[in-house]
């Protein structure tokens, strides 16, 4: 086999060398190398894109559905906060059985009840919540936050606004400043207190309604209220029915301009 140099010499004797051949050859080599790199880049990019698609397709989908039924979002909420939130939501939804399910044995939870503290024990919560539901009570839970801890458990405060006596039907409220203070231990509520702020509610709703119903239905008012001061309500099945009936009547009277 002839040497490479000899082949080159013989070929150059037979063919006139193109002055630009070396430059064109170099250009072709550079272009070929560039095309190889580009091709490799395309392959790598395609592989990377496929990997991204695979990762995204296997990731869990995050729900964007808002909390329902009066529940609130507690990102990163502690177990104590979750228990307190669920309890308050259940109570505000008039579900006595569910609310009681969050209580520890012997729990001491003080709630707003009728005259003589009727309806304040867990056994009487169904009767008590019947009155709140009958009067058009609506709870708007703001948030539940830890406020401290002790040997008794984790302390949580749940703040809320509310409507009552069908105040929303006549364009009044909601009324702010109410809250629950709850102590949670081992996933159960061991103590708590319901605080209902009436500084704005009383002059806007309680007093005008009491004045109207005592004048319009004096006999019924004697059953609905504990005494003539009209400052507290009697909690009986008969009373609950009258509260539901006359709060609806009051809305009509306000709409007709015959009540304040």
Please characterize this protein's 3D structure.
The protein is an alpha+beta fold. Among the domains are: 79-195, Nuclear Transport Factor 2, Chain: A; 201-256, no CATH class. The chain contains eight helices and five strands; from the N terminus they run ααααβαββββααα. The protein has a five-stranded mixed sheet, with helices on one face. A hairpin with a 2-residue loop joins β2 and β3 (153-163). The chain is elongated. Residues 1-75 have low confidence and may be disordered.
What can be said about this structure in brief?
With 260 residues, the chain is an alpha+beta fold. It has helices at 4-14, 21-58, 79-92, 96-100, 125-134, 201-216, 218-224, 237-256; strands at 103-110, 138-150, 153-163, 175-185, 188-195. Strands 1-5-4-3-2 form a 5-stranded mixed sheet, covered by helices on one side.
